[in-house]
Design brief:
2 domains; single chain; OB fold (Dihydrolipoamide Acetyltransferase, E2P); 5-stranded antiparallel β-sheet; Endonuclease III, domain 1; alpha+beta; 4 helices
Amino acid sequence: MSERRIEAVVVGPGAPGLVKVALGHGRTKFVVDVPFEIISPPLRLPNSQFVAVVEGRKVVRVEPDGGTWLTIQDRMRTVLNADWDPIGVADVVDDEYDGYIERIYSLLASDASEQSIAARLLSIEVELMGLEGTPMEHLLKVASELRILQLPSLGKS
């Protein structure tokens, strides 16, 4: 299962050693209990906001300064949902392809060609989704749309 980053807000205390955190927004918002040790003390207070890195519905770590990543993710999600959507569910599940954003972003950040980006999209479809694959002509158009996005760069940690 791949990691994805989600907006997170502390909604209150949970059971001993846990904090209740709301993840996501809109229709896909859900609440989970997160162990104290994953969240730094200043972020454990109600209404504290941060970016949670999750696998499925499990928070694996916190990125207190992850706002830049959320901007990148939101902009890329718009293109992936509107122009790619290989399984046709983006109108129902808006975060369906979030698990692939980091892989695609790494290509964009390295100034990869449209051909390389289209090949990655095809690989995701065939190898990870088990689909036959979208025609390369269409994937090249999606790659072009991704390349023209004005994405902020991530600082090196």
